[in-house]
Design goal:
This protein is α+β, with helices and mostly antiparallel strands. Helix content is 30%, strand content 8%. The two termini are 31 Å apart.
């Protein structure tokens, strides 16, 4: 799997294009501002629709229960009146009815069982399936690469397709470099600068704002299998020698 087959770190999780007015959730996924706003709105409308169907289902269920109670009460009254008249023998003297095994008879066909409808959850989930709220979204401040003049530099930029750089070391940001965001300011830096410089002082070098380690967010980076920068490691548990030919 080469680099062209993977989306860049700044690609929107929803439209897969380079994010416009990028925002990130608490899982590090990046979205276009318009895409995530539209997604949240669609999910809210879907919840309202499902809740409306659920209320309708509960009302129908309540009416069915009331109808069953009425029918049961009517059956009890008729049975009581018939017993008082002596029209039917006592239930203890009744002979048990023979079970009809003919499944094609209308009386033997199983009744339709209405499936139960669960109450929809009001919690909106992200495309990854984790809770997401509008107030938790972080506006990212990405530093674009400077405009290049020389043909050689332009060619190298076209090949790498990198659009943003770390404002501290001026190196391009990519899936390989690792990208971190300071939640309180939204400024984005590469992993090397974050580990070697910024974490030591716990201060945003662009705004001189103090922050805590809990306010550091690693943005999602795509990779191939275990080669991605998600913390996964691949270790061999058994070594089998190659057979000799």
């Amino acid at each position: 799997m080469n680099r062209d087959s993977m989306k860049s770190f700044d690609a929107c999780t929803l439209c897969l294009q380079s994010a416009i007015n990028p925002m990130a959730d608490l899982d590090g996924a990046i979205y276009c501002k318009q895409c995530i706003y539209q997604y949240l709105l669609d999910q809210k409308n879907l919840y309202k629709k499902m809740m409306k169907e659920y209320k309708k289902y509960k009302e129908e269920e309540k009416l069915e229960e009331q109808e069953k109670e009425k029918q049961l009460e009517a059956t009890r009254i008729v049975a009581f009146v018939e017993r008082e008249k002596g029209a039917i023998p006592d239930s203890s003297a009744k002979k048990q009815k023979e079970q009809i095994n003919n499944f094609w008879l209308p009386a033997s066909t199983p009744a339709h069982v209405k499936s139960k409808l669960k109450k929809p959850s009001s919690v909106i989930l992200s495309p990854k399936g984790t809770p997401i709220k509008l107030k938790d979204l972080i506006t990212l401040n990405l530093t674009p690469l400077p405009t290049l003049d020389s043909a050689k530099e332009k060619k190298s930029t076209i090949l790498t397709k990198d659009k943003y750089m770390c404002p501290t070391c001026n190196k391009s940001l990519s899936n390989v470099s690792g990208v971190y965001c300071i939640v309180s300011t939204g400024n984005v830096f590469c992993q090397h600068c974050m580990d070697t410089v910024i974490k030591k002082d716990l201060m945003d070098p662009l705004t001189n704002t103090k922050f805590t380690e809990k306010q550091l967010l690693k943005l999602e980076a795509e990779g191939s299998s275990f080669a991605c920068r998600s913390g996964n490691t691949l270790e061999a548990t058994k070594v089998t020698p190659a057979p000799r030919l």
